[in-house]
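Need a sequence for this fold. Nothing fancy.
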């Protein structure tokens, strides 16, 4: 049985999500262009640190599903106006997240789990891309 809590001991804590940016850079090398100042080796300290930021933002989104726009507004502004990240990259990172989740959960990564996370990540991606319109 999967424990979905964001509190200690749950699925969220047990995932190795800090490696998400490294996976994305490996699978989608074009995303490296946004990080010219990073040591882009798979498990560098900078990549792990950025992974923690990503996980923190996703955790905030999970805790505030009822108000994603307000929760992610500052992050959306940063990516749209300062960093000028192409919004397609949010979908690429979402795909990498699904892969990490599938590897971690194995048989427990059911079609229902996939769909639930797909909907969540699509909502997060849409909110992050709101400022681009």
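Here you go.
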């Amino acid at each position: 049985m999967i424990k979905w809590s964001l509190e200690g001991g749950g699925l969220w804590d047990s995932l190795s999500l800090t490696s998400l940016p490294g996976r994305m850079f490996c699978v989608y090398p074009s995303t490296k262009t946004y990080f010219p100042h990073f040591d882009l080796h798979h498990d560098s300290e900078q990549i792990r640190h950025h992974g923690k930021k990503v996980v923190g933002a996703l955790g905030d989104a999970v805790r505030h599903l009822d108000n994603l726009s307000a929760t992610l507004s500052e992050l959306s502004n940063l990516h749209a106006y300062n960093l000028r990240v192409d919004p397609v990259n949010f979908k690429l990172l979402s795909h990498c997240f699904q892969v990490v989740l599938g590897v971690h959960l194995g048989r427990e990564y059911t079609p229902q789990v996939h769909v639930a996370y797909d909907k969540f990540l699509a909502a997060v991606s849409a909110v992050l891309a709101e400022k681009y319109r």
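For context: DSSP finds seven helices and no strands in the chain.
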